Amino acid sequence: MDRKRVGILISGRGSNMMSLFEAVRRPGYPAEIVTVISNRPDAAGLAWAAGHGLATAVVDHQAFAAREDFESALHSALTAARVELVCCAGFMRLMTAGFVRRWQGRMLNIHPSLLPAFKGLDAQGQALAAGVKIAGCTVHFVVPEMDSGPIVAQAAVPVADDDTPETLSARILTAEHKLYPHALALIASGAARLDGGHVVGGHPVNQQAQLFSPAL
Ligand code: GRF
């Protein structure tokens, strides 16, 4: 089988990267991780990746005066590893439209909300402030506008009355770790694909409606 060559971009602890690492080890998984790139030399996930035999690279944004120069170094690192699909996983740099266009249709991101609700930072805090009963996470293609690209897959979790940003984030993160490998497999295998600005294909994992509401 032709496995898609994936590059993962991280900035921090890299727990989503770890879940992708576990997934690609499964027989028949349609992608492999060919590089993990961090914009922060001290990212905890970077040491973890190296310790688990993954190729790693640092493209330190602080070493570049202009964002375009940083991005062109990032682009070179990705192309040097012959990356076919990019997975942003807690990558905390805004990207210019120029960079995004070079990877458009080939770059995924995970965001801790049910997009298009609660874009940007502290999505979990935004969800609590809005009083929603369902929160979740989204894997989407990256487009120049932040957190706005075509949605590949989403996972929902309930919100509890006594949730704090920390407890809700932890519940969403558990869902993220299932969702990202699932969404990447959909795209890498070709089971789901971009079509007219939306992602089509794949099948609902769970066709049963679930109620997220206070109990009687
Ligand atoms: C995750 O919540 C992800 O949705 C967001 O940043 C966080 C990264 O966590 N984009 P990790 O570095 O993958 O543990």
Can you describe what's shown?
This protein has 216 residues and is α/β, with parallel strands linked by helices. It folds into two domains: 1-103, Formyl transferase, N-terminal domain (Rossmann fold, 3-Layer(aba) Sandwich), CATH 3.40.50.170; 110-216, 3-Layer(aba) Sandwich (Rossmann fold), CATH 3.40.50. 33% of the residues lie in helices and 24% in strands. It has helices at 15-24, 44-51, 67-80, 97-103, 123-130, 165-189; strands at residues 4-10, 31-38, 56-58, 85-88, 107-111, 134-141, 151-158, 192-195, 198-201. Strands 3-2-1-4-5-6-7 form a seven-stranded mixed beta sheet, sandwiched between helices. Strands 8-9 form a two-stranded antiparallel ribbon. Strand 2 (31-38), helix 2 (44-51) and strand 3 (56-58) form a beta-alpha-beta unit. Helix 1 runs parallel beside helix 6 (165-189). The protein is globular and about 55 Å long. The model has no long low-confidence stretch (mean pLDDT 95). 5-O-phosphono-beta-D-ribofuranosylamine binds next to helix 1, strand 5 and helix 6. The site of 5-O-phosphono-beta-D-ribofuranosylamine has 14 residues, from helix 1, strand 5 and helix 6.
Termini separation (Å)? 51 Å
H and E order: EHEHEHEHEHEEHEE
How many domain modules?
Answer: 2
Helical proportion? 25-40%
Widest β-sheet, arrangement of strands: 3-2-1-4-5-6-7
> Would you tell me which CATH topology of the largest domain applies?
Rossmann fold
Total beta strands:
9
Which range does the strand content fall in? Answer: 15-25%
CATH superfamily of the largest domain: Formyl transferase, N-terminal domain
- The total count of helices amounts to 6
Helix vs. strand class:
alpha/beta
Query: Which architecture name of the largest domain does CATH use?
Result: 3-Layer(aba) Sandwich
